[in-house]
Amino acid sequence: MFTKILIANRGEIACRVMETARSLGVQTVAVYSTADAAAKHVAMADEAVLIGTGPAPADSYLLGDEIIAVAQATGAQAIHPGYGFLSENPEFVDAVEAAGLTFIGPSASAIRAMGLKDAAKALMEEAGVPVVPGYHGANQDADFLAQQAAEIGYPVLIKAVAGGGGKGMRLVEDAADFADALASAQGEAQTAFGNPDCLIEKYIQKPRHIEVQVFGDGTSAVHLYERDCSLQRRHQKVIEEAPAPGMTEEMRAAMGNAAVRAAEAIGYKGAGTVEFIVDGSNGLRPDGFWFMEMNTRLQVEHPVTELVTGVDLVDWQLRVAAGEALPMTQEQIPLIGHAFEARLYAEDVPKGFLPATGTLSHLSFPAMARADSGVRAGDTISPWYDPMIAKVIVHGPSRAAALSRLSAALDQTQVAGTVTNLAFLGALAADPAFAAGDVDTGLIAREIDALVAAPEATPVHKAAAAQAALGLEQAAWDSGFTLWAPLHQSVTLGEGEATFTATVEVRGPDLQHWDIEGAQVICTRVNGQWLAAGKRLPDVALSGDAITVFAGYGLSFTRIDPLDQASGAAGDGNVIEAPMPGLVKAVFARQGQEVKEGDRLAILEAMKMEHSLLAARDGIVAEVLAADGDQVEAGAALIRLEEA
Ligand code: ADP
User: Fold this and answer.
1) Which of 239, 292, 296 is the pocket-test mutation for ligand 1 (most atoms within 8 Å of CB)?
2) Which of 6, 127, 148 is nearest to 75 (CA)?
3) pTM: predicted TM-score of the whole model, two decimal places
4) Which stretches in the chain have pLDDT values below 70?
5) What is the pLDDT of residue 205?
6) Considering only CA atoms, which of 461, 460, 472, 400 is closest in space to residue 429?
C-alpha cells in the first residue's frame, strides 16, 4: 500500500477519498485553488499545497503538470483524480506515469477507448455488448445521416460523439425537423468539444437509466450490481438508488455480464461504470437494455452501491492501484437491502434551478443518513465550482423502508445561509410514482409543477421565526416582564416579497400568546422545549437579520426595521441585476428598444452555466450598463428600463 497519496480534486469527493486513505493509514496531500484556502478538504488533509493563479478550474484544478510537481515535491506515490477535472483525461494519466507516479484509475488507453461515443459503441458491439440501434460511423454527410435516421425509425436521438452533460444532444420526432436539429447539434458540439461529429440513435421509449458498477484489476473484472439513475432533470441525475426497482435476477445477470464484458474488453483497472439505457415501457426484460457509455472513474453516486454491498469502493481503488488483487470474487459480493442518494445543491428552484452562492451559517444532517459533504457550517459556496452542498445517502432493509428514511433524512437536514433544492428533493421523495418504483427519465419533467411548489409557512412557523427575531426563545421572567401588565412586543419580518408583523403578549416565562396577522398561536414551554398546539416548535437559526426556520425544508425570513422599509421597496422590476457574480456573455437589449415582460435581455455565464436575464415587465430600455465580456458582481445593475 502507498504511504502517501495526492488528491487532485476538491469538495466532497476529495474529503471522501481522504477518509478512506486515513482509515488505511495513508497520508494525504490536498491541492487547492486561491478560492479554497479555507475549504474542508484542505483542513482534512495531512498536507495542502496551493496551486495555480486563480480560482477558475483552468487556472487551478486542471493544471496537471503543476499537480504532478506537487506530488513529487511532497513525496506522494500516487494521485487520485476524484471525478470531473482530470479524472478522464488520458494525457494526464500518461504524464502521471511518465513522472514515475501511479494514477489511481484505469490506463490511458482504457480511457481513450471509451472517450468518444461512436468508437466506444463500435468496440462494445465487437465485444458482444448490446448497443442502441443506430448509426455511429464516420460518414457525417447530412443527407446520409437523414437517410440513416429514416431507416432507424423516428423518434431518433442525435448525439455528439464527444458529448457529455447532455450537450450536443437533440431528440427528433419527425423527419422534417432532422436537418435543423443536426445542424444545431453539430454547432453546439463544435463549440463545446471542438468536434462536430454526431451519431444517430433510436430514441428509447419510457427510458430508464440503469448503470452497472464494475471493478477491474486490468485483466478480469467483477460487477457490484446496478444503480437506477432515472430521476433526472435535463439529463442531470437528481436521486439515485440501488438496486433498480423491478429488477429481475435474469436481467441483473444479463446486465452484469455485459458490463463485465465491456470492462474486460478494454483491460479495465479500477472503479468504472457502464451506463445502459433501458426500455421501461413494458417492465424490465433481459433483451431491453443497451450500452450508452462507460464512465472511467468513480461516480458521484457510488455511495448507494457501497451501502448495499458493504464495499468501500475507494478502499478497493487504493488496493488495486497499489497492485493488490481484487478483494472479492463475484460470488462473494453481497447485495443487501436498498439505498438512495439525493444530491443537495445550493440552487434556487423556483427561479429555474439557478445555482446559488452563500455562506452556510448553519449546516447539519440527521444521524440516520450518511452525508458526504465538502463543506461545513461557516463555509462558502462560491461561484467557481459546482454548488453541491452534500449527498444525503440512506439505507434500509427494503425499498419502502429506505425511501421513508430518505424522506425523514431530508426533512431533518438543516441548511441556512443559502437557498437549496431540499424542498424539491423532499417532494420527489414523496412522489407517488417514484414511491411505486415507476421511474423513467421523464418523471421529473412530467411532474415539475408539483415538485417545485415552495412549502408555505404556517402561523406556527412564523411565530417561531418571530420568537427568534425577538430573542424570546430564552425569555426569562425578568426580560422586561412586569407583574403589572403583560409585556407586548412586535416585530416585522420579510418572507419573500411579502412582510408581516407578529405581536406577542408574554404572559410568563413559559407562556407566549402570538398574534400573526390575526392568527393566534399559543406557545408554552415544557421541560425547556417550546410547544404550540402540543407540537415542538421547529428549530431556528438566526444569522444577522436572516432567520431560517427548519420546517418545510427550511423557511427563510428576514428581520426588517420598519424605518428601512421604504428603501427596500425599490423592487419595481426596472433594473435588471446580475443574480450572481459572472461573465456577461451577451447583451440583447439596445437603448430605446421596447421590451415585453419575459423578453430575454442578456445572458450571464456563471457557475459553468448560462442564465438568461429576462425583463420583469413591459417597458423601454433606458440604459444598457453592461457589455459583452464584462465580469460583474452579484447585484450589479446591467440594464435599466423605464415606463413606455
Ligand atoms: P451525456 O454523455 O451527454 O450525458 P448520455 O449518452 O450519457 O449523454 O445520455 C444522457 C441521458 O440522455 C441518459 O441518461 C438518458 O436519460 C438520455 N438518453 C440517452 N440516450 C438515449 C436514447 N437512445 N433514448 C432515450 N434516452 C436517451
Assistant:
1) 292
2) 6
3) 0.86
4) 475-486, 562-572, 607-608
5) 86
6) 400
Within a 10 A sphere around the Cβ of 25, how many other Cβ atoms? Answer: 9
What's the confidence (pLDDT) of residue 447?
Answer: 95
| Same-domain pairing of 156 and 301 | no
* Domain end point (choices 531, 560, 589): 560
Sheet containing strand 637-642, edge to edge, reads 575-577, 637-642, 619-624, 594-595
CATH number at residue 344: 3.30.470.20
Contacts of 482 (CB under 8 A, 6+ apart): none
Same domain, residue pair 82 and 152: no
* 609 close to 631: Cβ distance less than 8 angstroms: no
φ and ψ of 272, to 5 deg: -150, 170
> Residue 428: which domain range?
337-454
**Catalytic residue at 297?**
yes
Query: Do 221 and 243 lie in a common domain?
Result: yes
Same domain, 112 and 217: yes
State the total domains in the chain.
6
* Residue/partner pairs of 89-94 with CB below 8 Å, 24 or more apart: 89/64, 90/115, 91/64, 92/64
Mutate which of 116, 275, 277 to test ligand 1's pocket (most atoms within 8 Å of Cβ)? 277
Rounded to an integer, what distance in angstroms lies between the CA atom of residue 185 and that of residue 410? 38
Same domain, yes or no, for 215 and 325?
A: yes
317 grid coordinates: 481503488
Considering the domain architecture, whether residues 401 and 436 belong to the same structural domain is answered as: yes
Q: Which has the closest alpha carbon to 450: 470, 433, 467, 437?
A: 433
Residue nearest to atom 6 of ligand 1 (CA): 292
What is the structure's pLDDT at 476?
A: 56
Catalytic residue selected from 297, 370, 399, 559: 297
Say which residues have a Cβ less than 8 Å from residue 332's Cβ, sequence separation at least 6: none
| Domain-ending residue, one of 336, 371, 397 | 336
Instruction: Supply the CATH number for residue 513's domain.
Output: 2.40.128
- Name the closest-CA residue to atom 2, ligand 1: 164
Q: CA–CA distance from 187 to each of 134, 135, 197 (Å)?
A: 21, 19, 10
Three-state secondary-structure class, residue 596 = coil
CATH number of residue 35's parent domain: 3.40.50.20
Question: In whole angstroms, what separates CA 203 from the centre of its chain?
Answer: 26
Which atom of ligand 1 is nearest to 292's Cα?
A: 6
Q: Which long-range contacts (CB under 8 A, 24 or more apart) does 590-593 make?
A: 590/621, 590/624, 591/621, 591/622, 591/623, 591/624, 592/620, 592/621, 593/620, 593/621
DSSP state at residue 37? T
pLDDT of residue 634: 74
* Residue 196 alpha carbon to ligand 1 centre in Å: 18
Establish whether residue 169 lines the binding site of ligand 1, counting it when its CB lies within 6 angstroms of any ligand atom: yes
Residue position matching grid coordinates 464494475: 214
State whether 172 and 111 are in the same domain.
no
CA angle 151, 152, 156 (to 5 degrees): 125
| Whether residue 609 is found in the same domain as residue 548 | no
